[in-house]
């Protein structure tokens, strides 16, 4: 095996462990996550969840050419996939009127990748 292959064998388990740690933290410290199953986020005020919520509103504003103002994450769920899907209920202000929105963000921290996959008013 080439030296680069040995390096990959060391890095890949670390990246997978890091992803599971992020999910556990977002779920309120839970140590295990079930792949493919939506699990409730126990603390929607967690800084990581807050960051994902702000990202969702910011991306929606760019895509839809609107100017919603992020307020908070009301509740949410995570799903372990190749990374983590965050399905969030977000409170945001639109022209002085607060409303709730449902957003899904796909997050892969080891690649520094985030993608808004859906966003709609509920």
TrEMBL record:
Domain called Cystatin: residue spans: 33-122
Protein origin, superkingdom: Eukaryota
SMART domains hit by this protein: CY (SM00043)
Pfam families (UniProt xref): SQAPI
Keywords per UniProt: Protease inhibitor, Signal, Thiol protease inhibitor
Residues making up the signal peptide according to the UniProt record: 1-19
GO MF term list: cysteine-type endopeptidase inhibitor activity
Name this polypeptide is given: Cystatin domain-containing protein
Species whose genome carries this gene: Escallonia herrerae
């Amino acid at each position: 095996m080439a030296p680069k292959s040995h390096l990959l064998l060391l890095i890949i388990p670390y990246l997978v462990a890091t992803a599971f740690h992020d999910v556990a933290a977002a779920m309120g410290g839970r140590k295990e996550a079930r792949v493919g199953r939506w699990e409730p986020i126990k603390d929607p005020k967690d800084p990581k969840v807050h960051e994902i919520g702000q990202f969702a509103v910011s991306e929606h504003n760019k895509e839809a050419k609107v100017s919603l103002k992020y307020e908070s994450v009301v509740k949410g769920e995570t799903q372990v996939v190749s990374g983590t899907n965050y399905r969030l209920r977000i409170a945001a202000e639109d022209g002085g009127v607060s409303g709730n929105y449902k957003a899904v963000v796909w997050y892969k921290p080891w690649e520094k990748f985030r993608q808004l996959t859906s966003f709609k008013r509920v």
